[in-house]
Design brief:
Strand order of the largest sheet of chain A: 6-7-8-3-9-10
CATH class of chain A: Alpha Beta
Largest sheet of chain B: 14 strands, mixed
Number of domains of chain A: 1
Number of helices of chain A: 10
Helix content of chain A: 25-40%
CATH topology of chain A: Rossmann fold
Oligomer: heterodimer
Strand content of chain A: 25-35%
Largest sheet of chain A: 6 strands, mixed
Shape of chain A: globular
Number of strands of chain B: 26
Radius of gyration of chain B: 21 Å
Number of helices of chain B: 13
Structural class of chain A: alpha/beta
Strand content of chain B: 35-45%
């Protein structure tokens, strides 16, 4: 199996406080992974560190992407390598329409950018996610409902077509219909050349996107790793069960 | 990286002047200007009175510092060695013509404008108006000619009820040494569908430019007038103290747009004011990018009932720049309304501030005003401020004010960068979004130019 992401003994601080305390995690190409854990366990810190947020300081350890050390790369360079993070709280950028933003990103990421291809692709991907043309002409996330913001993240994912896709609580606050549409979008992009990492509290999304592997994170460490069944067990017993063990 | 347009701004022509005053200002020079222009006696008297007022009035003791401006070192009057008001670009000296060509003026004239005036130093060297507009009775000339041919109009409107020479020190200075500029008269009920433009260019160092713009839109008429300005960079300061007077008569509508991109050693102390009669509309579009220091507060006097003022302004302050701009509106009668939308950007230690006033007089019932002024700082070194004033003397009115000052946020940058945008591109995108409401209101050609100018400024200061 080909490793796409390797995290080795990763320690991360935010404002001088250590949040991640030695994470080891390997993700394989062609697999869907879930990372679960209680609030405050460090899941978001981990994925933001993988994307390169400057607030998260790596004090020890490293992150390899396709064997290349990316620990010190800026977020845009990581995006260019094919890493994508669907934000838990997407930012609102006033005055910049979704389509203008997508075009600007796509131009950066795709050396063979063609406007007519882009337009065609945008229409196709919009339709998969049941997003109206009107929405892509609105300012990026400004005045969007929670569901619209998440759909918009998935639209960006489909357009930019990354290799490693990290979904940070994309399911939170979504109704069933929106969840189904998002699962459809994820299903659309997944193939053996991609890898997905889903961050979630709940098993619900995993009924629509079946993980091959589940990681449990508590207090800044990966404490357990298993197959699809682990999520179900967790749902029944809660995190207390793991903490006791 | 320097682009074609930036090269055009920076281009310095060899000084070729018919007349260049000595440094500084005195009565003799004022008399000389008036004599050269063959002015009537009353204009000379007006100039001399204004010179006295200028000498008596103190420098402003508020706003940006004017310490670096040495008024005794400025050349107040420079006549280029060129024909006045040529009607064909072929009659304009080659190097001057080239400058305007690089600035894109003749091309714009052919494509989108109804008429163009071009001023170089103190004189207007080119002026032309499309024939059909001329036939409708539209007058478009420089103010020197305007005064000669329409003396009665000038007696009535030139620095009288709109901008008085007593308004402040630099209005007085302007009145004493004004030269060139634009005179527009639109007859009753004539609607000029395509914009007229004037471009003001300073070339020599330590120059002063004092062009006068007088626009009279007669009852029920409509006009869109655009001004552009620039100058090359020198180490010594230069001074621009223009005046724009607009008379919007009953039911008329005037849109005045200007993009000022003076060199970063210019003190831009400009006065712009419109008097709006019943049912009239004035629209200000104000872009300030260049200059060392700008103090500019376009003012609308809503004199007739149901008259209206809309202002949109954008200011960009980079390294060493201080942009102090804003809008003033006086609501004198009932049912008058005003809107103000202002956006300031500061980067690399630049300072951008909004300074405005809304005054509602007693009796101006059912008047409305809404003001929104936002500032965006691109780094920690820069400053953005707002000084809005509201002076409301009537109860039955609707007044609102919103202001937001912010810095380009780390979270926003991270979001955009996570989609592959390098930091500088992410900042540019955020800025383009910030000014979008203003760009949308501009005519297309100017929207593109302004956007490009701001992107270039950001590239030079962030990258």
């Amino acid at each position: 199996m080909t490793k796409i992401l390797e995290i080795k003994n990763l320690h991360v601080e935010v404002k001088g406080k250590e949040i991640l305390k030695g994470i080891n995690l390997t993700l394989d190409l062609g697999k869907i992974n879930a990372l679960m854990g209680p609030n405050g366990s460090g899941k978001s810190t981990l994925v933001n560190t993988v994307m390169g947020h400057p607030k998260y300081v790596v004090t020890k350890g490293k992150i390899l992407f396709n064997g290349k050390d990316i620990t010190k790369l800026s977020p845009d360079k990581r995006a260019k390598l094919g890493i994508f993070l669907s934000f838990q709280h997407p930012r609102e950028i006033s005055g910049v329409s979704v389509s203008k933003f997508l075009k600007t990103s796509e131009k950066e990421l795709n050396p063979k950018f063609s406007f007519s291809e882009f337009k065609k692709n945008l229409k196709e991907k919009r339709e998969i996610l049941e997003i109206s043309e009107n929405m892509t002409e609105r300012y990026l996330n400004v005045g969007f409902s929670g569901g619209e913001k998440k759909k918009n993240e998935i639209l960006q994912m489909l357009i930019l077509n990354p290799k490693l896709i990290i979904l940070d609580e994309t399911d939170s606050g979504l109704d069933i219909d929106s969840l189904k549409i998002i699962a459809k979008g994820v299903g659309e992009i997944m193939n053996k050349e991609k890898c997905i990492l889903i961050i979630t509290h709940y098993k619900r999304i995993l009924e629509y996107i079946k993980p091959d592997k589940v990681f449990i994170m508590i207090k800044g460490k990966i404490v357990l790793e298993g197959g699809n069944k682990l999520a179900e067990e967790l749902e029944k017993k809660g995190y207390g069960w793991i903490e006791k063990e | 990286m320097e682009t074609k347009l930036q090269k055009a701004y920076a281009m310095k022509n060899k000084e070729d002047l018919k007349f260049k005053s000595s440094e500084g200002l005195n009565e003799e020079l004022v008399r000389k200007i008036s004599k050269d222009k063959n002015e009537p006696e009353w204009m000379l008297k007006k100039r001399l009175d204004a010179l006295r007022t200028f000498n008596e009035k103190p420098m402003p003791d508020w706003g940006p510092s004017l310490e670096g401006l040495n008024l005794s070192k400025i050349y107040y009057y420079m006549r280029p060695n060129a024909k006045n008001n040529a009607r064909s670009w072929d009659e304009v000296p080659k190097d001057i013509k080239e400058t305007f060509e690089k600035l894109g003026i003749p091309k714009a004239e052919r494509k989108v404008l109804g008429g163009v005036g071009a001023q170089y130093e103190s004189e207007v060297i080119y002026h032309n108006l499309k024939k059909d507009l001329e036939e409708k009775g539209v007058i478009f000339s420089d103010c020197d000619n305007g005064l000669k041919e329409h003396e009665e109009i000038f007696k009535k409107y030139f620095m009288t009820t709109c901008i008085s020479p007593n308004l402040h020190k630099f209005a007085a200075l302007h009145c004493a040494v004004w030269s060139g500029g634009t005179f527009i008269y639109v007859p009753k009920n004539v609607k000029v569908e395509i914009p007229l433009q004037a471009y003001f260019r300073m070339n020599s160092k330590k120059g002063g430019q004092f062009e006068h713009t007088l626009i009279i839109a007669d009852e029920g008429s409509e006009i869109h007038y655009i001004e552009g300005c620039s100058a090359p960079q020198y180490t010594e300061s230069s001074l621009h103290a223009g005046c724009v007077e607009i008379h919007v008569l009953k039911g008329a509508r005037v849109r005045y747009s200007s993009i000022e991109n003076w060199s970063k050693n210019t003190y831009n102390l400009n006065t712009k004011r419109a008097v709006v009669e019943e049912d009239g509309i004035i629209e200000w579009v104000n872009g300030n990018l260049g200059s060392h220091t700008t103090m500019l507060y376009p003012c609308s006097v809503l004199k007739g009932k149901n008259s209206k003022s809309d202002y949109i302004g954008i200011a960009y302050a980079g390294k060493g720049q201080y942009q102090d701009t804003g809008c003033k509106v006086y609501h004198l009668k009932e049912k008058t309304s005003s809107t103000v939308l202002s956006k300031g950007i500061s980067v690399n230690g630049g300072v951008s501030s909004y300074r405005g006033l809304i005054k509602i007089n007693p009796g101006a019932i059912n008047s409305k005003s809404s003001v929104r002024c936002d500032g965006l700082m691109l780094d920690n070194k820069s400053k953005a401020m707002t000084f809005p004033s509201m002076d409301v003397h009537e109860n039955q009115v609707e007044v609102s004010h919103e202001a937001a000052i912010g810095k380009v946020g780390e979270e926003d940058l991270f979001y955009l960068m996570s989609r592959g945008l390098p930091e500088s591109e992410a900042i540019k995108l955020i800025v383009s979004g910030f000014i979008e409401p203003i760009i949308k209101a501009l005519p297309l050609e100017y929207a593109v130019e302004l956007n490009k100018l701001i992107e270039l400024e950001i590239e030079n200061s962030v990258c």
